[in-house]
Design a protein that fits this description.
This protein has 181 residues and is α+β, with helices and mostly antiparallel strands. The protein has 6 helices and 4 strands. The protein has a 4-stranded antiparallel β-sheet.
Amino acid sequence: MSDSVTLAVTDHVPMEAKARYEALVEELHRLFETQNGFLSVDTVRHSRPHQVEYTVLSRWSDEAAVTQWRENPAIREKLAKIEAITGGPAQHVQAIGLGMWVDHAEGSAPHLPPAWKRTAMMSAAAVYPMLMLLMALSSPIIGGLPQFLQVLIIVIVLSALLTWPIMPWLSKVLRPWLMAR
C-alpha cells in the first residue's frame, strides 16, 4: 500500500456549531465509504475554549481515488454545508505513502493564525465600527436610561452580533491575511 494517498483536512469549528459539524462530517464519511478506492478515515479533535480543531485523515488507494470522490455531487453538497459552518474551505495536506508524517514542505502543515491577528486586530476591526453604529442607532431608544443600563444593553447586542454573523464573516474575508505566514 505504499502508493496509498493520505489526505489531511483541518477545520476550525466554533463550539456552538460542534454538534452540527460532527453530524455533517459523519454523513460525509458514510459517503466516502461508497467511493472506489476508499481505505479508511480517522478524526483527531483538539478542543480549545472557543473552538474545536478537527483534523480528518482519509486514506485512498491512489491519486485517482482522491480526485474521483471530489466529483460526487452528494459529497460536494456536504462540503458546502460544512464550509458554511467553518467559514470557508478547509486546509488540505496530501501525501503519498509516509509523506504525511515525514516529508512536510515549509508552510504546508495546518496552522492557526498568530494570536495578535486573531484576537487584537480582528476584534478591534469588528468591535469599534459595530460599537459606534450601535451607540448611534440605540441612542434615541435607550438614551433616557441610566448609563450603566445603556452600556449593558449595547454590550449584550454587540456580543450576540460578534458571535454570529460578524466574526465568522470577518474571518472568511480576512482569511488570506490571517493565514499568511
